[in-house]
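From the shared-data thread, chain only:
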Amino acid sequence: MTIEVRVPTLGESVTEATVATWFKKPGDAVAVDEMLCELETDKVTVEVPSPSAGVMGEIVAAEGETVGVNALLATITAGEGTAPAPAPAAAPAPAAAPAASGGSVDVMVPTLGESVTEATVSTWFKQVGESVAQDEMLCELETDKVSVEVPAPAAGVLAEIVAPEGATVDASAKLAVISGAAAGATMAPAAVAAAPGTATTTGKDVANAPSAEKAMAEAGLSAGQVSGTGRDGRIMKEDVARAVATASAPAPAAAVPSPAAQAPRAPVAAQDEAREERVRMTRLRQTIAKRLKDAQNAAAILTTFNEVDMTEVMALRNEYKELFLKKHGVKLGFMSFFTKACCHALKEVPEVNAEIDGTDIVYKNFVHMGVAAGTPQGLVVPVIRDADAMSFADIEKAIAEKGKRARDGKLSMAEMQGGTFTISNGGVYGSLMSSPILNPPQSGILGMHKIQDRPMAINGEVKIRPMMYLALSYDHRIVDGKGAVTFLVRVKEALEDPRRLLMDL
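Structure, as tokens:
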């Protein structure tokens, strides 16, 4: 009987993937759930397991080919060669490996990213005694940047939870134990725990992901400068992005002081305390609090205000929004106009796009635009890299994709590092005016607010116009008042007459 191997569900809004690596070739014996190939999407890497034991037949989609969801990848002739395939040479069994059946597998903390040394166990999806399938999500970890889901390395029964909810674990800690797993399944943790970048020393030579090779070439990095987290130390696209971000990112902030080291809490009446609810701050919320307070302590923050008449932007948007959506597949919003206007103004006032490093001022000849986004977990600032070189459509697509990933808690650390300037839109929540706080080490942040009809004097007549207050908070240590006001005026001019953006005026 012939079994078809098809592309699995790739996730929300992901419709296609690239075949990165085949681990089997026609004629090889395969076991049930043994990994056959690896697919790459623009968001994640997906391993495709064998749906049946048998012999590998035809490979329909070759390496490097782009395939859609449910596309045919290969065929397997079932009922032949059903003996489990031997473990890959890249992961030899350790001396204390368990027996072939009824063994146990340790669930370890996965790779958390550069400069992240610990995480907090936020949620366990399984309880002790429950059966688990391979790659089924066991728990979720929370770092000061992102949430990390931990999949089961093997099928079996969850025998022990070593790190309960709320526990803080380091990057090499054991989280749980799965019993009743096959011995072959214990090879995966061994391979993951191996030193990064050792793919060339394993028994199986697996090439780096094609997208990773391209990204390394563009960034001028060699394979030795990137730590691979893929199968057998294979370098993935996100590994390259992490290496690039680490090279340009400032040193990580110091740990948040423990509650005991902070100011004591004011006395509370007993009858009131009984009606209170105490909830531990998430690591993300602790980091937000620490960074914002550091910004106030370190920078000389000053805010200047102006207002912009949104008539022309709204008219332009209403005129072209249907054509824009039809051609580019994304809605035309206000954020692309503000992003373009800020990039234009930053060229004229470069100190707003700079940062202080000791006694030096570092001017950025590019714009990596941070777009603040509110999520159920707290405020995050995904970065749109090289926004100054992007079109309106590219900016809108990037904002939509980053915003969704932020709300889903799927942003990587690399996607939130390296920003040079930030835009924060409090208007979506109804804010009429506010004074935003800098996102260090940046020297400027633009606050957008609610659009509200107000009476304005236009050529000696009172007319109702859609107005928005703008606020620029800046570091007065390197940005003078003249520069800050000039920046905000240029943003106002570009928005009130969008044609200036096309003419570079």
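The chain has three domains: 2-78, 103-247, 285-503.
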